[in-house]
Structures are given as structure tokens and as C-alpha cells.
Design goal:
The complex is a heterodimer of chains A (about 350) and B (about 425). Chain A has about 350 residues and is of the alpha/beta class. Chain A folds into 2 domains: about 170 residues, Response regulator (Rossmann fold, 3-Layer(aba) Sandwich); about 120 residues, no CATH class. Helix content of chain A is about 35%, strand content about 20%. In chain A, helix 5 links the parallel strand 5 and strand 6. In chain A, helix 1 crosses helix 6 and helix 3 crosses helix 4. The mean pLDDT of chain A is about 95. Chain B has one domain. Helices cover about 20% and strands about 30% of the residues of chain B. In chain B, the strands form 7 sheets. Chain B has a 6-stranded mixed sheet, with helices on both faces. In chain B, strands 8-9-1-13 form a 4-stranded mixed sheet. In chain B, helix 8 runs parallel beside helix 9. The longest helix of chain B has 20 residues. The chains are: A alpha/beta (about 350), B alpha/beta (about 425).
């Protein structure tokens, strides 16, 4: 097998074209290695070779993201590469964003592996670590000598399709993907071992580092409810009988939007719950217990609220990942805003 | 409190005319067991089957797993269900080790599980290593879900106690003694070792997510103390319809690995003084009350450290975090065991709650991870329930008989009392 063909992405500074004053340089490309590319070629030790280098000014990339990405991808494609390496960007924020953006686009559109390198506090890390392998580097270009062999090694592994070890073994920044593994000891023993260490003040490693929990401050109160259109949104799984959208009983992959026109209250003949995480008896007997259409209609008649929004949205919360829930919420919120809804009552189970 | 467990190592279970135990083989009479189960008029029909480790057998939908035990002296097994709710945990108990009674049959509603005896699924469920006596029982028409659940739960307990009855008078092959002393004595015995207890969260979200303590619904308890040996005699019984992967079946209450491990370190690294049981009710007021009370008991006992385990996910994550935070605020160190719901791709946040004080966590793995279970030669129960149990979907059951499903549906796969070797890492 021949050498892997590599395209290297760098900014104007590392290409030797100039500093900040040249940061608005549009994309260009050159055959062969430029700047740090020579060091990469050496680190590839004959297994891969940089066939082309794409260069773009950092300001240009960040100010013209879509155009720049399309242009850069075309230039990369031209070299017919097996692999793309970007940077390393160290702690340069705009360069990090560009390296991350290019690698993500390469992975998604050209379907070939891409590797970049950054300092752990580079803003590009937060944005792209989930999508892209980012090798951890020092904060400045003084760390080039150390970064290049690590990036080259990981890039070769990806190009060969070899299984990767843990982030600490491979030197990349954890992408935040949780993966199951069987370990030596059973859980109870691991827990008691950890407690004994914690009691003795010895170091131990938690198996699940706590995330930065996303706490949402409540929105300010609606000033005049009597003029507001209020919508009902539920994760309690209330759907028209027969569950037309086949929303899963657990780990829902979708939500439904259903019409309440002419519905004064929900009847068990026409509505049910699709939720598999609680005893459905009481919700099926009277679906208004989970989705209070009956009370909302009363409030509408009494003039407490302007009106109940014509459609309600439903999904199942049971075991549904936070990421899915977030996605559903964004789509639902967009439609509600477009429909002129001012307030939402969220019901759960 | 001191309990002697006398073990009989069961190598196989077969059917015969009478129920007896000889040379590692348990023979059970289907007729006797049928009569016993059908005493309950809520049960219409019952059949029995045996599934052995390595066989190409799938059991679905699994409700509970129970270890057959019998009290030789000192009360009745499963007090509050099969006998008066008098204190257990003392005297002698005989155990049919290496086997279990598994209850199965028409689905009660949702959230029941799968046990595969071979193949990839068997790697995940700890119950694939046991010889399983499966009770397939169906209710009479028109029975409510709540009565259906209760009838099946009690049928399982009765069958387990009945088969264990045949070794009551026999000499066990092995005896193990467990003892926890009253607090003043325990403190005097190991004055220099850190005092450790186990905070045991019992599933009590209600609506069929229930656990029972001496027959009392755990929703209705205030956190309290229990001797570890009481668990071994069936003082805690699981209700059905709790998500399969992280439900603690009755077998796990009887053989809690955290208790086992704390006993193993007792007198060496720690002074294991006992268990605080608490619940996982759904209202905020209940959560506040129970976690306050749990932290208070931990302080009252003068503890240095606790292990806290969860049962279930989502809503009970808040109980886990509240218990952790409040106990840590008392200056008592905590280690938590949980599992994760990080999405099928593992990219989502794993728990519904978090706190920086939860800095020592053991994970039993991501229950959303998908597994393909190949077709099996034999299915005990009803395979079509794969479409509706938690972790399944309309597409779960594939044409070739294989099942594509989340680990969530596999009984005990992500046990939050640390019964398995599954964990998770961040990539």
C-alpha cells in the first residue's frame, strides 16, 4: 500500500505570509508542505505525505465562515486526500475555530478522518471537541515539537482505521462521548475501594465527572395573561389514540404536534399516553390529568387567559437523552414563537 | 444481629414427581408448584420451564428474579408477605445457591426485561449465570394492572420459598456467618476505624414502581435503619415494572453486593455499622423530607462515610444528588453508584441532576447503548413484548428474530448496586 495522501490546513501566520495585518487573506493552496508541514512529513516517517497545503487568514475564515469553508473544501478535495491535518492552533482562538470548523466539514462532507491540535482552553475546543479529534497541545507555538508527533500518530491510526484507546492514551481531548466498557472489578467493589481511599485522603478517580449542569432561570411572568395565547407542551406522552406518530415508550426519537380545535376536554376514547415510564392507568382513564385541556378551556371561558393555542406538542420523557430533549424543545419553541404563542405550560410525569 | 447462611450449590433443576434436592440437583414437581400458584384466583394459568447457562434461550418479559431461601430458625422468609412481619435477620437460613426463580408471563404494562442465557445479551445480565426456574403465569381476564403485578410478585415469592423448603432439614454444603452488632458494641470493637454505613435508595416512584419493606410500601416509610442481615432474609421485596436494567430484583436485595463488599472490608479498613434505607418518591416535599432525614440519620450515627446507591433513573437522580449534597454538608464522605442515560450515541448529559459535591461516582454504564440480540432457539414467554418494553421500539423485533434494543431492556445490565463489571469511560 502506498503512502496516505494528506492535506494540511494552516493560517497565514504559520504559512509565513504575515501576522495580524494579513489575517483577512482569502483561501489559497500550494502543493506540498508549507511551514510546520515539513515537521509533519518527518513525523509520518514515510507512511503518509503532505501533498497539498491550504492556507486561509484567521479573520477571513471567521468572518466568512460558509464561503470560506466551501472554498477550502474544494481546494482540499482537489488533492484527493486520505486524511486532513489542521494546525496545531495552540491557544489562538480564531485559528482554533478555523481548524475545528475545517476538520468537522472534512469529516462530514468528504468522509475522511481529520485531526487538529489545540491548547485545552482554546475556544475551538468547546465548540468542536464532540465532532473532531483535537490533540491537546501547549499554549504557544513553543509546543510545536511536542504536538506534531502526537498529532501525526493519531492521524495515522485514524487513516488505518485502527481502534483508538482512551483519550489519555491517545493524547486527544475527551470528546464527551460516553462508551461502555467491561472492567476488572464489579461496581460494588469499585465503590467501596473508592470510599476507603476518600476516607484515607488518598487520590481516587471518579468514573463520572459531574457535568456543568444547565440550569435555566425561569422566564419573567407574562404581564397580561388575559390577552396571551397559551400552549400546552408535555413530556407525559399524551397522544391521539393509537399513537399515530409511534412515539417510543422510552428514549423518544420524536415529538408529535396535535390539533385541539373543537376539543373541550380529552376523552379516553380519543387520547391515551404513549409513555412507558409510569403506570398509564390514571392517564388513560382521564388524559386531562397529564395534559390539562379541560382546565385550560375553563380559564379561556373565564377570560383568565386569552386563548389556548390550537396545537399541543407531546413527547415521552422516559429515558430520553438531554440532547434529544433539547433538540425537540428548540424545534417546538421555534414553531410556538412563529405562531405568536406568549406562554407555555409544560407538564411532566 | 447474627445470621448463618447455609448454602446448597445447585448444579441443575429438573422436573419430577416430588420436590427434592439431591447431589446438587433440585427436582421440582410442576403439579405441586401449579397448585401453589393457582391458589391465587387472580391467576388463570401457569407453566414452568428451566433455562440453564449457555443454552440458546431467551426469557421475556422478566418481572422479578428471586433466590430460593428458607428460614430454619428465626421467623419466616419474606416477612409481611409469606408470614407475619416479625423481625428477621437472625438464626439460620438455607439458600439454594446458583439458581433463581424468574417470574414471566403476559406483560403487566411496561418496563419488564430480557434474560438471554447465551450470546452477547448474556454477557450483560448477571442472571444468565444461574439455573433459572421460570414461572410463566397469566392473570384472569379483566384483572387490573395493579392486581396483576401483585399476584405475580407473590407467586414468585411463594415458589421460591416452596422449593427452598426441601432443604430446610438438610445439612448445608457450606456455611457463612454475617453479623452486625448494636452500635455501642460496634463502636467499641473498632474505635479507630472510620464508621461507614450504606444509604440504600429504594425505588418508590409509585404507579407500579414500588419496593416493599416487611410488606410496607416504601413510599410510605420515613428513612430508617435496618440490619444488613434482614435484607438476606427477604425483608425487602421488589415490585415489578421497574426499568429492567437498573431495577434491583428481589435477588439483588437478598444478595446486595455493596453489603457483601462492606462486610469484606469490615474490621480491616472500615467499621460497617449498618444500612439506612430511604425512598425515591416523586414529589419535591417527599424528596426534601427523605433526604433531610437520611442526612440526619447519618449524622446521628456519627458516620465518617457512606455508599449511596440509586434505583432507576431520571427522577431518582435528584434523590441521589440531594442525599449526596446533604450528607457531604454534614462533613460525611460519600461515594455514589448510578448508571447513565447518555443517549444512544453517548453524547448527552448522563444524569438529570448534578452537583460538584458528587466527586466520587461509580457508573454502571450507559443504559441507552444499543445491542443486537441474535435469535434464540427457544423463547420462554412472549417475544413480541420487545416492541413495547422500555428500551425497545416498534423496530426492535427484526424479521430474522433478532432484537435491536437498548441495554435498558436487559435485566440487571446496569445494576446500580454494582452487581456487574460494566462501567463507562469518556472518549
Amino acid at each position: 500500500m502506498g503512502k496516505f495522501r494528506v492535506v494540511h490546513y494552516i493560517n497565514q501566520f504559520f504559512a509565513g505570509l504575515g501576522g495580524e495585518e494579513k489575517a483577512d487573506l482569502p483561501p489559497q493552496d500550494k502543493e506540498g508542505p508549507v511551514g510546520p508541514g515539513t515537521a509533519f512529513n518527518a513525523a509520518f516517517a514515510g507512511e503518509a505525505e503532505i501533498v497539498g497545503t491550504v492556507i486561509c487568514g484567521d479573520s477571513y475564515f471567521n468572518e466568512h465562515q460558509e464561503e470560506a469553508k466551501a472554498d477550502i473544501l474544494e481546494r482540499i478535495k482537489k488533492y484527493n486526500p486520505d486524511l486532513v491535518v489542521a494546525g496545531p492552533a495552540f491557544n489562538a482562538g480564531r485559528y482554533g475555530m478555523a481548524c475545528g470548523g475545517v476538520c468537522k466539514a472534512v469529516k462530514e462532507t468528504l468522509n475522511i478522518p481529520a485531526v487538529t491540535g489545540m491548547f485545552k482552553e482554546n475556544p475551538g475546543v468547546e465548540v468542536y471537541k464532540k465532532d473532531v479529534y483535537i490533540v491537546e497541545t501547549a499554549g504557544s507555538a513553543a509546543g510545536m515539537r511536542e504536538a506534531v508527533p502526537k498529532m501525526a500518530k493519531l492521524a495515522l491510526k485514524l487513516a488505518k482505521g485502527e481502534a483508538l484507546g482512551t483519550p489519555s492514551e491517545e493524547g486527544y481531548i475527551p470528546r464527551g462521548i460516553r462508551k461502555n466498557v467491561f472492567v476488572e472489578e464489579y461496581g460494588a467493589k469499585r465503590a467501596v475501594d473508592m470510599l476507603v481511599k476518600k476516607l484515607k485522603g488518598e487520590p481516587y478517580t471518579t468514573e463520572y465527572p459531574m457535568p456543568d449542569f444547565d440550569r435555566v432561570p425561569p422566564a419573567p411572568a407574562v404581564k397580561d395573561l388575559s390577552k396571551a395565547t397559551v400552549a400546552l407542551v408535555t413530556s407525559g406522552g399524551i397522544v391521539p389514540k393509537g399513537n399515530p406518530d409511534k412515539i417510543e415508550a422510552s428514549s423518544a426519537s420524536r415529538f408529535g404536534k396535535y390539533d385541539l380545535e373543537g376539543v373541550d376536554y380529552l376523552t379516553p376514547e380519543k387520547f391515551q399516553t404513549a409513555h412507558g415510564g409510569y403506570d398509564p392507568t390514571y392517564a388513560n382513564q382521564d388524559p386531562n390529568r397529564v395534559l390539562p385541556v379541560d382546565v385550560m378551556r375553563e380559564l379561556e371561558r373565564e377570560g383568565v387567559i386569552g386563548k389556548l393555542h390550537r396545537y399541543y406538542y407531546a413527547t415521552v420523557g422516559n429515558g430520553t437523552s438531554v440532547a434529544s430533549a433539547k433538540k425537540f424543545a428548540q424545534e417546538i419553541a421555534k414553531e410556538l414563537i412563529a405562531d405568536g404563542v406568549q406562554a407555555v405550560i409544560l407538564t411532566s410525569t | 444481629m447474627k445470621l448463618e447462611l447455609g448454602y446448597f450449590n445447585v448444579k441443575d433443576v429438573v422436573f419430577g414427581d416430588t420436590t427434592r434436592y439431591e447431589n446438587g440437583v433440585l427436582t421440582v414437581s410442576k403439579k405441586e408448584l401449579s397448585e401453589l400458584v393457582l391458589e391465587d384466583q387472580r391467576i388463570k394459568d401457569v407453566d414452568f420451564d428451566v433455562a440453564r447457562p449457555g443454552e440458546e434461550v431467551r426469557i421475556i418479559p422478566v418481572k422479578d428474579v428471586i433466590e430460593p431461601r428458607v428460614k430454619v430458625t428465626g421467623g419466616t422468609i419474606f416477612p409481611g408477605f409469606l408470614g407475619k412481619p416479625t423481625t428477621v435477620g437472625e438464626g439460620r437460613t438455607h439458600v439454594l445457591k446458583g439458581m433463581a426463580v424468574v417470574t414471566c408471563g403476559r406483560i403487566v404494562g411496561f418496563q419488564e426485561g430480557i434474560i438471554d442465557m447465551s450470546g452477547p445479551g448474556a454477557e450483560y445480565t448477571p442472571f444468565s449465570k444461574l439455573v433459572n426456574l421460570v414461572v410463566v403465569a397469566n392473570p384472569v381476564e379483566g384483572l387490573s394492572q395493579h392486581e396483576h403485578e401483585e399476584a405475580l410478585r407473590i407467586a414468585g415469592l411463594k415458589v421460591a420459598a416452596y422449593v427452598a423448603g426441601c432443604v430446610k432439614e438438610k445439612e448445608p454444603e457450606e456455611i457463612k456467618v454475617y453479623e452486625t452488632k448494636p452500635l455501642p458494641q460496634a463502636l467499641k470493637e473498632y474505635p479507630d476505624l472510620p464508621k461507614v454505613a450504606y444509604v440504600y435508595q429504594l425505588q418508590s416512584q409509585g404507579l407500579l414502581h414500588d419496593t416493599y419493606v416487611y410488606g410496607v410500601d416504601a413510599k410510605k416509610i420515613i428513612p430508617t435503619l435496618i440490619y444488613p442481615t434482614e435484607l438476606m432474609d427477604g425483608a425487602i421485596v421488589s415490585g415489578n415494572c421497574v426499568s429492567a436494567c437498573d431495577k434491583n430484583p428481589t435477588y439483588v436485595h437478598q444478595n446486595n453486593p455493596v453489603v457483601e463488599e462492606l462486610y469484606r472490608r469490615h474490621g480491616k479498613d472500615i467499621n460497617f455499622v449498618g444500612i439506612i434505607i430511604t425512598n425515591e418518591n416523586v414529589t419535591l416535599a417527599d424528596k426534601e423530607r427523605s433526604s433531610d432525614y437520611t442526612a440526619k440519620l447519618a449524622e446521628y450515627l456519627g458516620l465518617d462515610g457512606v455508599i449511596i446507591t440509586e434505583e432507576g433513573f431520571g427522577n431518582p437522580d435528584t434523590d441521589l444528588i440531594m442525599n449526596c449534597r446533604k450528607i457531604e454538608e454534614k462533613g460525611i464522605k460519600t461515594v455514589l453508584i448510578t448508571d447513565e442515560y447518555a443517549g444512544r450515541d453517548g453524547a448527552s448529559q448522563s444524569l438529570a441532576d448534578a452537583d460538584p459535591k458528587a466527586d466520587a461516582v461509580v457508573t454502571a454504564g450507559n443504559a441507552n447503548e444499543v445491542i443486537v440480540l441474535p435469535p434464540m432457539k427457544k423463547v420462554i414467554g412472549l417475544v413480541d413484548t420487545a416492541a413495547v418494553i422500555a428500551g425497545g421500539s416498534q423496530k426492535a423485533l427484526r424479521e430474522d428474530g433478532s432484537i435491536e434494543i437498548e441495554l435498558q431492556a436487559i435485566t440487571g445490565a446496569t445494576s446500580e448496586v454494582g452487581f456487574t463489571r460494566l462501567s463507562a469511560v469518556t472518549l
